[in-house]
Amino acid sequence: MRTKVITVNNEPLPDWKIHKVSKESVYLKGIFNFKNKYSVQTTTGDISANNDKISIPLLDPHAIDKHKHKYRYVHIGLVQAYVRPVEYSGVNGSISLFLKDKRLFDFNDTF
Q1: How far is the first Cα of the chain from the last one, in angstroms, to the nearest whole number?
Q2: Residue 1 — very low, low, confident or very high, per pLDDT cuts 50/70/90?
Q3: Exposed, middle or buried by CB within 10 Å (0-12, 13-18, 19+), for 32?
Q4: Within 13 Å, how many C-alpha atoms sit on residue 14's CB side?
Q5: Which Pfam families match (predicted)?
Q6: CA–CA distance, 103 with 47 (Å, rounded to integer)
Q7: H-type helices in the chain, by residue range?
Q8: Quick one: what percent of the chain has pLDDT higher than 70?
């Protein structure tokens, strides 16, 4: 696999990456929290520019099911979304990103 360095105005673009987040920075573990299980999941992927609209699951349903069978609820402490603009990839266009929870139906307060 070959890597191509993309430049704008003869300067290379920064190497954008998702920031690594430790469990301790998201979940403050107390002295008596023996039963709590903490997990960090990172998923990456590419999306074709041919799609007009696409739904991307940010959380793996199998990973959630694996953790929730021992507990009454699962708390999601942090979700990060990272989008690289396509104009830096040599494509004449841009992106529009809307991150939402599909269980919520009223989005009037979000705009």
Answers
A1: 41
A2: very low
A3: exposed
A4: 5
A5: MP (PF01107)
A6: 23
A7: 23-26, 61-68
A8: 26
Q: What are the tens digits of pLDDT across the range 78-89?
A: 776 766 665 555
The tokens describing 102, both together, are 């599909």
CA–CA distance, 18 with 22 (Å, rounded to integer)? 13
Instruction: Tell me the residue type at 19.
Output: H
- 7: nearest Cα among 90, 83, 92: 90
Cβ contact 38:95 at 8 Å: no
Dihedral sign of CA atoms 10, 12, 14, 17 in order: positive
Beta strand residue intervals within the chain, DSSP E = 7-8, 11-12
What is the model's pTM? 0.43
Do strands 7-8 and 11-12 pair parallel, antiparallel, or not at all (unpaired)? antiparallel
Contacts of 29 (CB under 8 A, 6+ apart): 36, 38
